[in-house]
Amino acid sequence: MERDGIEEDVRILCEMDRYDPSARTLTWTEPEAYPYRRQIAHWTEYFATPARNGGLSDSYTNNFPFEPLVGNLPPPEALLWSALSLITLAS
Fold it and tell me: Residues 28-66, buried b or exposed e (16+ Cβ, 10 A)?
């Protein structure tokens, strides 16, 4: 059965020691490396792309980090809602 062959291949791959202690390197097989590369590409795109916000002028992060020297200021709405939430928590 094909599944038995796949399970045997996986067992053999898991038992192999591909770590080289002198170089401190772990060699991945192509089936292991492929999903890793996909994850790296996915997360790189995720963190490099501004959040989609329905066409609003501010991003989801409201120009974080705060840095007035380069024009990254919180919008007035963020300050308003922050103040209102603190008042609500204090009462």
Answer: eeeeeeeeeeeeeeeeeeeeeeeeeeeeeeeeeeeeeee
pLDDT per residue as tens digits for the range 2-32: 777 888 888 888 888 889 999 999 998 888 8
8 vs 17: CA distance, rounded Å: 16
Is the pTM for the entire model greater than 0.85? Answer: no
∠57-59-63 over CA atoms, to 5°? 110
C-alpha distances in Å from residue 64, one per residue of 42, 47, 54:
22, 13, 19
